[in-house]
Amino acid sequence: MKFLKTFALYASAFAVSFAAGFSLDLVMSRDTSMTARNWSDEIGTVSRDFAYGDQAAQKFDLYLPADKSRAHYGLVVYLHAGGFTAGDKTDDTEILKWFAAQGYVGAGIGYTLLSEQNPTASVKSMSDEIKTAMPIVVAKAKELGYPIDKMAVGGGSAGHGLAAIYAFRDGKTAPVPIAFTFGMVGPTSFEMDGAPTEPSAEAAAMLSALSGEAISVEMLKSGDYQDKIKPIEAYRWVDENSVPTLAAFGALDKVMPFSTKPFQTALAAHNVPHDVIIFEKSGHGMHRDKDKQKLYVAKLNEYLAKYMPVKGG
């Protein structure tokens, strides 16, 4: 059994992951076609800060295509990066405009980050916020004249992790069918390659912070912690009914260096349609594999066309 690295090392990784994850989205919009050039009201509009709860971060933005003539629309939710401690729903404006320019309703959803002001926030609480937000996002889109019949959910880094949790853990309760899920460098597991083999107080503390549950060294030794972290490990919710999946990871990722193998193994074992792209030269920011960037965008377009095509009126 492999355990997390020390609390200090992992917390340090969180501290830098916002910059890496944010630059990830910039790379994807700048170096590929994932940008809505010449954005104007003739292409789409942005409506911001609809509330789905009482907390400051519990708001979402909608990116609405100009064409309001269709009977139904596909919704693309993209969740922001930031290592669960930083970032904002507006960080993905360019990517969400790109989806709207193609005829989809785009949504960026905020969630309460772990901070000194919110010390009890956890990956579990953030994932529960996303689950709460989804039906409200769909209802608001309909209210504005965009009835939703399908959705795709994705994100970068921490946002990808949350998107995967929603798709695999909560997909059966989604307000409309999930067509597919996608994302880059997101945590689908919290047990790292290269971690100390001996359970430690630091590992227990980190898992406690991530899961929102009290986890002790004794629980790590006995394996009793596994039920407590299951809600935040997306790969453990994969089954034969899981949705098609597109994912990308950096082979040299030092920010979140856990293996993709459990995720890939689960997808394959349950015959889930999937593509997992490894950026062999890249770390968490995914900068160094231009060919893989283009492949990822090409695959994303394939998934959109196959699983959630834009239909006529």
TrEMBL record:
Domain annotation BD-FAE-like: ranges: 61-259
Keyword Transferase: no
Molecular functions per Gene Ontology: hydrolase activity
Residues in the signal sequence: 1-19
SUPFAM superfamilies in the cross-refs: alpha/beta-Hydrolases
Keywords: Hydrolase, Signal
Name recorded for this polypeptide: BD-FAE-like domain-containing protein
The species this protein was found in: Conservatibacter flavescens
